[in-house]
Amino acid sequence: MKIQLNVTLGMVFTINNRNYGGFKYQDGVAYVNYHGDLVAEAPIENGSIPARGRHNISSSVTIFADKVIGNSNFGADYRSGVLNFSASTTLHGKVSMLKYFKMKAASHSSCDISIFVQNETLDSDCKSKVRL
Fold first, then answer.
1. CA-to-CA distance for 85 and 94, rounded, in angstroms?
2. Phi then psi for 121, rounded to 5 degrees?
3. Residue from 121, 93, 126, 89 nearest 108 by CA
4. Confidence (pTM)
5. Could you give the C-alpha distances from 104 to 50, 66, 93, 114, 128, in angstroms and in order?
6. pLDDT one-digit tens code per residue, 68-97
């Protein structure tokens, strides 16, 4: 008998755009991995991030809990008190500067996420790259 357990959580991502160009992006998906296994997906609806501004993205993440628990590293990680995940997404769109210059661009973000089991907190370290 195979047990499937999925959990859906609401999330809000805050994006800080330090660049002088705005970014209008198409729909995308963020993927979360645990020791190389895909364990969660979060759809990202199209939108825009203003130049030198902040933007909140609301989404829901579906966690495939059976894949996390079924991973051979889960027991040892849980006993150590830290579960380490990696997340990544690539958003395609256009960068606009001064409303006149528009270029196709792709923004790739990757994060290392550590969940601390005992105190129920998390820490993340994210990196982003923009390709024109």
1. 30
2. -125, 170
3. 89
4. 0.82
5. 16, 39, 6, 33, 17
6. 999 999 999 999 999 999 999 999 999 998
